[in-house]
Amino acid sequence: MTLVLTRSFDDSSSHTLEAYRAHGGYAAWEKAQAMEPAAIVDEVKAANLRGLGGAGFPTGVKWSFIPKNHTGPVYLVVNADEGEPGTFKDRYLLERDPHALIEGMLIAARAIRSALGFVYIRGEYVEPWRRFSAAVREAYDAHHLGRGFDVVVHRGAGAYICGEETGLISSLEGKKGWPKVKPPFPAIKGAFGQPTIVNNVETLCCVPPIIERGAAWFAGLGTKTQGGTRMYSVSGRVKRPGVYETPVSVTLRQLIFEHAGGVTASGRLKAVVPGGGSAPILTADEIDVTMDVDGLKNAGSMIGSAGVVVMDESASIPEALMVLARFYAHESCGQCTPCRESTGWIYKMVHRIVEGHGHKDDLDTIVDVAKRGGGTTICAFYDGAVGPYVSYIEKFRPEFEALISRA
Amino acid sequence: MSVAAIAFSPEQLAEVRRLQSLYPDKRGALLPVLHMAQDTFGYVSLEAEEYVAGLFDLSPAHVHEVVTFYTLYFREPKGRHVVAVCHNLSCHLAGAPEILAHVKRRLGIEAGETTGDGRITLQAVECLCACEAAPMMQVDDRYELNLTPEKVDRILEGLA
């Protein structure tokens, strides 16, 4: 199988410049320096690279939104604020292949004509931050950085919402991480009021291989609408939890039973969260789906950050929803009323159901409130909360009702 | 800590200026400088907020709004160590409730509290993104993975 992003992970020194070079590193940057910026954008478009942070937006198209007539600064911002429940791939990349990200940034910066990049790393990631900062120093010493492009490594301070790109920008500007109304989109008016491209870590790590081996090769690894491989974070009740890189045409069944070794505990699959905490849940009968952006969209869920959380028959779905509802209540930034109020109240209701004090109309109330709330807020956070609320209750309603009838 | 103690050294002030110069607008350095303030003063008191506000030509109210928004800034003295047990989904499925209950019993405190001797502050936190090694917790800068009650005991005993 072709490994693109994790090819050097078995090498214990893979985070060093020396090892990165030994694995062919910075050759793509050499090649890109002879390419026109527009040619780099076209190559990434043709590769069908889609954002791997959650939204799945075509990366080359995003880059092309930078206004052509803009003469001021343009910023490249890396979203390393990994926080989606069930996702841990970017931590691996920051720790084990930091130079791949730096090289991806160099190429992206040339494509969008940026001279300054920021890498926003979640505050809890202390070791990844140290590893990545050391790699940046190596890249400066080797003169990859500092010659037309500089990198600032920025530590966050604990807030899931800063993974939302405009919340991240607010935070980078020294404010609380409140998302901003779009439009204007960041490519038009982003960080510090200037055109800004925000890309996920893994997305940018795909860029050097695309430039080195060509768009057709990368596109051919994936499906018709999404090129390449991606890193699936698999956790929960599986025999071999971990990061698995495969082409995006892999099925959820293959990921669970072939890559992660199958289901532990009772041994019988009950449900799967296929794309991080914000993805609607799938039942054991719904796992024959391809794990690309469109495959999961067609299955009524979403690939999001590709965090796969597996639940076996002994797992309680109401408890799982309670844990996620608590998360959304805690992480709502409080800016928009539907999100601030509903996340708090829905957590209270799911909590009382689990505690055996549920009211008989609680389930209908939660679904009703959730279905009316999507699309009413500044950012996608609340839409990401609504998906779980509705899908867990609709697909596993008898399990919730059993708890309520005992009340 | 008295108000007079809230001041960076000349070297730290030079670092503040260096950080501020990295951003198109110096206030981009606010979060990093608040991390510095916490590392230096132990926590971010109202006096520290006012001091940092002065370094940025910002109102103390703006800095207060920022400090209270993020979970990693402590507004009261914290223990010499911070133990943060993840209670999100993958850790929950792997037994995080039992791990958290065990830590609470061993320390005799609830999440959000600090032991009477000032040794440990305990927190229950959202996903730290090490789900492949659940249940897990963060102890100061370190991730402690694949926890069992026995492993938790060894870790807690090692915290001076």
Structure description:
The complex is a heterodimer of chains A (407) and B (160). In chain A, strands 6-5-9-7-8 form a five-stranded mixed beta sheet, covered by helices on one side. In chain A, strand 2 (116-121), helix 7 and strand 3 (150-155) form a beta-alpha-beta unit. With 407 residues, chain A is of the alpha/beta class. Chain A is 43% helix and 12% strand. Chain A folds into three domains: 17-221, NADH-ubiquinone oxidoreductase 51kDa subunit (Rossmann fold, 3-Layer(aba) Sandwich), CATH 3.40.50.11540; 229-312, Ubiquitin-like (UB roll), CATH 3.10.20; 317-405, de novo design (two linked rop proteins) (Up-down Bundle). The model of chain A has no long low-confidence stretch (mean pLDDT 96). Chain A is built from 18 helices and nine strands. Chain A starts with 16 loop residues before the first helix and ends with a helix. Chain B has two domains: 3-69, Arc Repressor Mutant, subunit A; 81-157, Glutaredoxin (3-Layer(aba) Sandwich), CATH 3.40.30.10. Chain B has helices at 10-21, 30-41, 46-56, 60-69, 89-93, 96-107, 149-157, and strands at 81-86, 120-125, 137-139, 142-144. In chain B, strands 2-1-3-4 form a four-stranded mixed beta sheet, covered by helices on one side. The longest helix of chain B has 12 residues, at 10-21. In chain B, 38% of the residues are buried. Classes of the chains: A alpha/beta (407), B alpha+beta (160). The interface between A and B is large, with 59 and 43 residues.
